[in-house]
Amino acid sequence: MLIKSAGNHSEEERWLSELMDELGERLTKLSFSYLKDWGKAQEVVQDVFLTCYKKRHQALELNSIESWLYRVTVNRCKDVLRTSWFKKVIINNDVFYNQKSGQPSPEIASITKSENEKLAQLVLSLPMKYKEVILLFYYDDLSIEEISYVVKSNPNTVKTRLRRGREALLKNMERSDFLERSYEGY
């Protein structure tokens, strides 16, 4: 996992490099789910890692650096969303801009990509309180306890939001005929 002690400068840099390799992509995707702008998401994650490096001695004392980084990322994203500059910008990016795909046939790849994009759009259209727990649970594989720490809520509240978020997602999928279109011809 991660190096727990950072004695000299090169070990600290190695520790940060490993941390960035391990969590960078997931934190960027989490940030993107809030900001819907890939460039801004990357800026937020860079800022989070810079904060982590500056507070590395405190971070090393934490039980879960990963949960702490998720929490800092969520807070930074919410800060960016509150700024007047961000509210004035029109954001229109492809949902899976940097998503890598496998090598299925072009037809299957096209169908799968279309379905994944539609599902991602449906998830991202959910209210923030449902969207954040669904993304953290399903896309980032965090536990209920870790999510409750990240979003600063009671674990039972997280469970309720997950349940309601799933229900809202299912209703949105039914309204958009996603379920029927996804399984036609299979």
Structure overview:
With 186 residues, the chain is mainly alpha-helical. Helix content is 75%, strand content 0%. It is built from ten helices and no strands. The protein has helices at residues 9-35, 38-54, 56-61, 65-82, 84-88, 106-124, 128-139, 144-151, 155-175, 178-183. The protein starts with 8 loop residues before the first helix and ends with a helix.
Distance between the termini: 41 Å
Query: Which structural class best describes the helix and strand composition?
Result: mainly alpha
Helix % is over 70%
Biggest β-sheet strands, sense, barrel? none
Tally of contiguous helical segments: 10
Spell the H/E element sequence: HHHHHHHHHH
Layout: helices, strands, pairs:
Blueprint: H1 9-35, H2 38-54, H3 56-61, H4 65-82, H5 84-88, H6 106-124, H7 128-139, H8 144-151, H9 155-175, H10 178-183
Helix pairs in contact: 1-2, 1-4, 1-7, 2-4, 4-8, 7-9, 8-9
Sum up the structure in keywords.
mainly alpha; disordered N terminus; 186 residues; 0% strand; 75% helix
Write a brief caption for the model.
This protein has 10 helices and no strands.
